[in-house]
Amino acid sequence: MTYVKKQLGITVIILSLSVGFTGCESPAGESGTGTLSVRLTDAPFPSDLVAEANVTIDSLEVRQKGGGEGGPYITLSSSPQSFNLLDLSNGITTGLAELDIATGSYDLLRLYVGEASIVMNDGTTYDLTVPSGAQTGIKIFVKPDIAIVAGVTTELLLDFDVSRSFVMQGTLDAPTGFLFKPVIRGVNESTTGGIIGIVSDTASVALPDIEVWAELDTVVSTAFTDSTGFYAMVGLPAATYAVKAYAAGYDTVTVSAVVVTAAANTTVDIVLTTP
To answer: What topology does CATH give the domain 192-272?
Structure first.
């Protein structure tokens, strides 16, 4: 099988909402608050062309289930924060917001992005037009719902696909600009786990910048190895995956029947062989 490397790779932002115990409703009659801590992370991104993929997040809101299109929404963060997504990779996170919110179920977030830009390795900068999400917010539905329980903690992951969100114009050899079309997936972390491992060759030499991806019927998540050959894919719904790796000059390797369970990492080390 030949796998065509995705244009500029896939990058994932994870907003980890550390707030409570997911998967259950508050007991009848119980009220109170849980603390919502939002963190940001990013999967590896190829650096042969792009030095920075920047976004400014103006605010983040969450909606209580049953509130309808108009709300009510709770503002989790309202101070603009700028991030170079390429600084966050392989499980590195940074704080985004922390707030006590009322117990109950929440099913929708709105993320407001004020600015976005790409900086190439040669210093060329592309300031990108942000679509209507700057005014109305990017809607991110969460399944299953987030259940906030008094005094306990839950987590939510927002998976931001940078490859599909920063769409290059022109060719890899002669890019002419980028379009910004945010693509974000919301998953309840109580049902997700991760896949981590090392990619090496038959001489046990660790291989950097190797593309690794996890598939169900389609590609769910993609990562690139760092200088030590390490990769990590997080926010994967509990399921059985095929994990694949590709690099020019090597055969595509497939590891079948990789089981991911909630709140755990499954280790899959991969050895690439030449044709």
So the answer is: Immunoglobulin-like (2.60.40)
Which residues are bridge partners to 18 per DSSP? 37
Please say whether the beta carbons of 71 and 136 come within 8 A: no
* Order of strands, sheet of 211-215, starting from the edge strand that comes earlier in the sequence: 219-224, 211-215, 239-246, 253-260
Calpha distance 127→85 (Å, rounded): 15
Q: Check if the beta carbon of residue 64 is closer than 8 Å to that of residue 254.
A: no
Domain boundaries, the chain: 13-190, 192-272
Neighbouring CB atoms inside 10 A of 264's CB total 11
Count CA atoms within 13 Å of residue 119 on its CB side: 9
- The Cα 149–Cα 79 span in angstroms is 26
Q: What is the pLDDT of residue 17?
A: 47
What pLDDT score was predicted for residue 37? Answer: 62
For 156-207, how does the pLDDT look when each residue is reduced to its tens digit (9 = 90+)? Answer: 777 777 767 788 888 777 888 899 988 787 777 778 899 999 999 999 999 9
* Contacting residues for 264 by C-beta, under 8 A, at least 6 apart: 193, 194
> Are 195 and 165 spatial neighbours (Cβ–Cβ below 8 Å)?
no
β-strand pairing of 184-188 with 138-148: parallel
Encoding tokens for residue 116? 């976005």
Cα separation, 194 vs 158, in Å, equals 14
- Bridge partners (DSSP) of residue 240 are 259
Token pair 């996170």 is found at 93
